[in-house]
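Board notes (copied after class):
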Amino acid sequence: MKIYEAIKVDHDIQRGLCDKIVKTSGASEERKKLWVELKKELEVHAVAEERYFYSPLIDTDKMQEDARHGMAEHHEMDELIQELDDTDMTSPQWLATVLKLVEKVNHHLKDEEKDFFKKAKDVYTEDEEAALAKDYKDTMREYRKTWPESIPGNN
């Protein structure tokens, strides 16, 4: 498996959670459960993706701007996650903010899958793509088990 395929598996999880959470209402148990799942997936994914996809690309002329853009979008999502954590789930503001987050997530996934992955294929060798995928998947597995403590800055 290559890094792009490993990341795409997690993108599909995120899309599914986004689709489900926007159909919830109030402070229902379903919304609470989906919010924890989505937040966990986004936070764990951002750390692993930055470490094993974006960071190696920062040093390349071809991908530096795209890598910085992707990491900046992760930061924007982090801010929306914090805003959602600070907002009452029953308020209209919570739904408006989660809709902004879902829009940001979908935009980010599209950028990566339609543009960044294609460019990165010209940078990484096949061996690098496979090694990065292994490290990415190992980190995702470990961080999912130990979330939220595993997220840098959450201690």
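Comment from the instructor: Helices lie at 3-21, 29-58, 64-85, 92-120, 126-146. The chain has one domain: 3-146.
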